Prior knowledge:
Elements: H1 6-11, H2 20-43, H3 47-56, H4 59-67, H5 77-111, H6 113-143, H7 151-196, H8 200-217, H9 224-242, H10 247-283, H11 295-301, H12 304-344, H13 350-373
Helix pairs in contact: 2-5, 2-7, 3-7, 4-7, 5-6, 5-7, 6-7, 6-8, 6-9, 7-8, 8-9, 9-10, 10-12, 12-13
Amino acid sequence: MARVDPKAVLEGRIPGRPPVGLIVGLTVSSLCVVLALAADVLSGGAGFWVGVVLAILPIPALVALALTLDRLEPEPPRALVFAFMWGAGVAVLGALVLNTLGLLYVTVPIFGETKGHFVSATFGAPVIEESLKGAVLFGMLWFRRNEIDGFADGIIYAAMVGLGFAMMENITYYMRAFEDGGAQQLQTVFILRGLIAPLSHPLFTSMTGLGVAYAATHRRGQLVAPVLGLLGAMLLHGLWNGATAFGLGGLGIVYLLDFGVLVTLIVIVSVERRHTVRRIEAYLPMYSGTGLVTPQDVRMLRSIPSRRAARRWARSVGGPPAARAMVDYQLAATELALLHKRADRGNAEPHWFTARRDSLLELMSLARQAFLRTPPRPGGPASGAPPWAPQGPSGFLPPPPPGPYAR
Length: 407
């Protein structure tokens, strides 16, 4: 598959062109992370390292949990890393500066020390932090809207931003808890922020993600949907921060509210996944004449367990090259179905639709050819028939040899 860059085709970008914007964004975000950590170092002592360890500890599990929502059509890893780094860097450092300035020059001078901190946390911080976190989502809507195929994508990117922000924020909270109250207070804060409600920031920003995803996939609501999503994020964030003034009862209410939001997001992703499966079943059969897909192949593509089984079979037949070819085929087929969804909603310019469709079909063809050209592994299955189409037909079965009377 040397003539085609599968990642470039799946991401809808020009092959071979270095992602300058992404490189610049990651560099700026990384510098902001360093500056934010430097501020923590200057204001703390030994508690800094305790905070770093505890803040990072749950992140791999939380990221893995978030990515389980996006298994049918995974987002590009580089875009996910950028979203995470934006939340951990630009959003955190910007919030640190703006929240501090707001306290010093607005809320405390107007409302006094105690009430000023409450007003800042309940009304000022949600506006500042959700605007900064949501900025990268608005940027994707403006520059990379074709990367967002549905609500699941908006939620995933928002979750990455929120997890990056929460990780950096938790360093400060754990550091202060350790220095003010020792191990006992640190344990309490870690249980509250790291175990009971580790997804609060991702949940807040997911509201913005929903609005941005709607705008990216519908002709109407291009401005209203993202703004409403951002307002929803600010509202949830403000309720969370303000609940601290009402003791355990207030915290219990917002915990229940966030749990309800989490369940709602899971339902949205599940319903959307079923719709994607139906689109795979509806659109891909029209390409059966190309030989790239058969009804049996569609049945394989419509469920995650059968896709996983197909990759295992491909690896057993031809090793890692065959497995990679199968992955490319599956992802290109899914992108093709989602492309037709955009066209049905009037969100696909005709020339772009044609070019995108042809590039995906070419990738499917090359993936299939690469799979068929892969020599069988020693000790692999004796039969070359895929398990989802033991009697054929399938795009992954070599064509039968010509008959004795073929010309």
